[in-house]
């Protein structure tokens, strides 16, 4: 965990924190998003606003619908119903590559770095606005070369920042899990996004790289970007999130400041679910761990 206490952004919402609460300056505004798989409703979100320029954590027990909501908001999946706007523009139904070009990028729970491409080539693939096979490229190759040079320079800059520059010519497959997470984040930044969405950035990351990943996420906010991340690690959520959205069974069941929202009975309920009357000792360790961490706010404050 980072040694210093990050500067939290407050005053993000209007009125009492509750599911669907209005934000002072939302970057995403979503309404009536539904996605079912067969008979199962994976996502059923009535209204959700994500605050701009802040770090928002999306938490909830396994199967709550977090990744499905991520997939929908980034155009990797299509909803049954729903409408949402990014930065004031309606983007429901817009395909993923266009969403990314518009300034909203994401990383995946399982990293998607292309193993048989070098680290540098992976970075170049993350750049937006490449002329591709356009007529302009065919007619004016020097324009294309200049763009290539700029992309490469930006890639090298970012690789240096993420301490991956020494690996630029290595295949992505040779990186450790944590380094691949860093590469994914660095690659996401190639398109100079406004909103960075991270799906479980800490999962599978060796503790030696945890600090570095957290610092990079905090840096994104310092540079004016908005961050939305899914995470099971409550310590991380409390430490870096300015705002927390809690999902359970497809719905948003609570929203608020990370220290306050963890005390909300609806959040404990979401994690205990149907296990409410069972002895904690008999539950799946992942549930007991989450509930313990939710209740562990004071201990966490002392630690940091
Ligand atoms: N492609 C799919 N086909 C069928 N069911 C799916 C599909 N994707 C998700 N689901 C189901 O939708 C529900 C929500 O899944 P989702 O992965 O969004 O949850 P999650 O909150 O991200 O969970 P986790 O924390 O375990 O990643 C789950 O019950 C899951 O089994």
TrEMBL record:
Gene Ontology molecular function terms on file: ATP binding; ATP hydrolysis activity
Instruction: Report whether Cytoplasm shows up as a keyword of the record.
Output: no
Which segments constitute the ABC transporter domain? 28-274
Q: Does the keyword Nucleotide-binding apply?
A: yes
Matching entries from Gene3D superfamilies are given as: P-loop containing nucleotide triphosphate hydrolases
Please give the CDD domains that the UniProt record associates with this protein: ABC_Mj1267_LivG_branched
Keywords from UniProt, A to Z, are: ATP-binding, Nucleotide-binding, Transport
Give any Pfam family that matches.
BCA_ABC_TP_C
- Mind telling me which GO cellular component terms the entry cites? plasma membrane
The protein in question is named Amino acid/amide ABC transporter ATP-binding protein 1 (HAAT family)
- Which source organism does the UniProt entry give? Microcella putealis
Q: What is the lineage of its organism?
A: Bacteria, Bacillati, Actinomycetota, Actinomycetes, Micrococcales
């Amino acid at each position: 965990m980072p040694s210093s206490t990050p500067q939290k952004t407050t005053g993000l919402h209007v009125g009492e924190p509750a599911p669907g609460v209005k934000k002072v300056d939302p970057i995403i505004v979503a309404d009536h998003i539904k996605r079912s798989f067969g008979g199962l409703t994976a996502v059923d979100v009535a209204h959700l606003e994500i605050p701009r320029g802040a770090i928002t954590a999306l938490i909830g027990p396994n199967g709550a619908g977090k990744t499905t909501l991520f997939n929908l908001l980034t155009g990797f999946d299509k909803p049954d119903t729903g409408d949402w706007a990014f930065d004031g523009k309606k983007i429901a139904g817009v395909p993923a590559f266009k969403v990314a070009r518009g300034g909203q990028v994401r990383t995946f729970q399982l990293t998607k770095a292309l193993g048989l491409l070098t680290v540098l080539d992976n970075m170049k693939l993350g750049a937006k606005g490449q002329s591709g096979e356009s007529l302009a490229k065919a007619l004016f190759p020097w324009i294309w070369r200049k763009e290539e040079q700029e992309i490469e320079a930006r890639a090298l800059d970012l690789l240096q920042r993420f301490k991956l520059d020494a690996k630029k010519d290595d295949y992505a497959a040779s990186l450790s899990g944590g380094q691949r997470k860093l590469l994914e984040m660095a690659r996401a930044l190639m398109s100079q996004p406004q909103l960075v969405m991270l799906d479980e950035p800490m999962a599978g990351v060796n503790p030696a790289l945890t600090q570095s990943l957290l610092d990079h996420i905090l840096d994104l906010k310092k540079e004016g970007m908005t961050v939305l991340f899914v995470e099971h690690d409550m310590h991380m959520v409390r430490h870096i999130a300015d705002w927390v959205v809690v999902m359970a069974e497809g719905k948003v069941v609570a929203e608020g400041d990370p220290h306050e929202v963890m005390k909300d009975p609806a959040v404990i309920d979401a994690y205990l679910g149907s296990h409410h009357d069972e002895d904690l000792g008999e539950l799946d360790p992942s549930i007991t761990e989450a509930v313990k961490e939710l209740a562990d706010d004071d201990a966490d404050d002392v630690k940091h």
